[in-house]
Here is the input.
Amino acid sequence: MKKLLIVLSFFTAAAAYAAPAILTGQEAFEHSKKHISGILLGTELEGGKNAPVYEIKTLDGDTLRIALIDAETGDLIRLKYEKIASDRAAVLRQVKVSHGEAAAAVNRALAGKIIESSLHARGGKPVYKIEMADTAGYPYEALVDGITGGLISLKLDEQFVNKPAITLAQAEKAATDAVGGEALYSVLDEDDERLHYEVTLISDALRLYEVKVDAGSGRILRTEAVR
Here is the structure.
């Protein structure tokens, strides 16, 4: 389950876990309003050249507006614009429910941390696709109606052969002890029947890292800086 951070991420998700040294997703979105307008589609926190960068995406008419915002200062780095299909844009403009309201609907059904939220046009209506990890780190995917806010579906994103021997908290501690900084979120993953936690964290030097922690022993399997 490789993701960083998020393709069209939920803009308030970062507010729940961001280290104090960087802006929350909500703050980055507020900074972006000086430069772009429209319906918020999502926010992505990426590893930048000098500091993490938020990519804010909005829909204004049939135009996708993208602002890259410095996650430390809130300064605008770059603006981009793209045209999207008018029928798709028309569906997305029907949205009545915010990212936060959609996430709240999911959390009422399952406690955990929202990792990703993206607004899509599906079946002629706007639908939020939300990815989250429950309190044990198991990954789930939910669909929420963008007009009514109703939960359409909630399912475990992956079936696992093994069970973790260490907790999510222990995995995050192992990762932060190795790299420093603060864990943003963690999810369980499995490859070649080896169960592990993928811990995404921001270091004290404001760099994004993915740390793979063995879910059986707590051993660090890999540390990778996110560019």
About this structure: Helices lie at 13-17, 25-32, 86-92, 99-109, 168-179.
